[in-house]
Amino acid sequence: MNRLIVESYTNTTLNTILDDIATKYKVDTTKDRLDKDIPIDEIKFKYRTYSECVKMLYKSAGVVNAI
Question: pTM for the complete prediction?
């Protein structure tokens, strides 16, 4: 069963957000981490699946290779 993620973040980085999601939701985020961490001003996940969150993060960070 996919757990829905409900979180909001301000003034942090993409990899830090993935680390937090990994801890809170017991998700393996290693394949989605970036070599170069990118700052995220603000992002909110309201009842999103993990894959939706990654897409939103990549889009917010301007990463072209969004899944």
Answer: 0.90
